[in-house]
Amino acid sequence: MKHVILFFSSNAGLGYAPVASGTFGTLMGIPLYWLLARLEQQEFVLAWVFILLLSFWSAHRAGEIYGVVDDGRIVIDELIGYLTAIAFVPFSWPSAIVAFLLFRLFDIVKLWPANWFDSNVKNGVGVVLDDVVAGIYAWLSLYALMSFFPDFF
């Protein structure tokens, strides 16, 4: 079971990148975005909730295994954060890339309440929720950019 937990929490090993593991972990979101963008909204929501619950569980259990709540190898939180950033956005390469950049920006900056979750909730839920909040900020920014520059997306 330990290997299954570490497989999911590291996004199939991307979390083991020697540098910028969060950025590498977020990359898993792009092919998943391509697949999930084909779903109806209700199906997307079900898939998102499943991945969210998997993220809570695997991030928490991996933290116990590593002995560090938010170990750098745990990057499934980046995946659910990125999937939050692209929720209900039709797939295009510009939207995939801009969402990626916006999500990484907001994940690194950690505006409130992301910074609160990061500092105060010391378990898998806290590890994941700061990225979901960053994903919401990225989603709002992406939609704003899409409305100002519709021909780009």
From TrEMBL:
<feature type="transmembrane region" description="Helical">
    <location>
        <begin position="79"/>
        <end position="103"/>
    </location>
</feature>
<feature type="transmembrane region" description="Helical">
    <location>
        <begin position="43"/>
        <end position="59"/>
    </location>
</feature>
<keyword id="KW-0812">Transmembrane</keyword>
<feature type="domain" description="YutG/PgpA">
    <location>
        <begin position="8"/>
        <end position="145"/>
    </location>
</feature>
<protein>
    <submittedName>
        <fullName>Phosphatidylglycerophosphatase A</fullName>
    </submittedName>
</protein>
<dbReference type="GO" id="GO:0006655">
    <property type="term" value="P:phosphatidylglycerol biosynthetic process"/>
</dbReference>
<keyword id="KW-1133">Transmembrane helix</keyword>
<dbReference type="InterPro" id="IPR036681">
    <property type="entry name" value="PgpA-like_sf"/>
</dbReference>
<dbReference type="InterPro" id="IPR026037">
    <property type="entry name" value="PgpA"/>
</dbReference>
<feature type="transmembrane region" description="Helical">
    <location>
        <begin position="16"/>
        <end position="36"/>
    </location>
</feature>
<feature type="transmembrane region" description="Helical">
    <location>
        <begin position="124"/>
        <end position="146"/>
    </location>
</feature>
<dbReference type="GO" id="GO:0008962">
    <property type="term" value="F:phosphatidylglycerophosphatase activity"/>
</dbReference>
<keyword id="KW-0472">Membrane</keyword>
<dbReference type="InterPro" id="IPR007686">
    <property type="entry name" value="YutG/PgpA"/>
</dbReference>
<dbReference type="Pfam" id="PF04608">
    <property type="entry name" value="PgpA"/>
</dbReference>
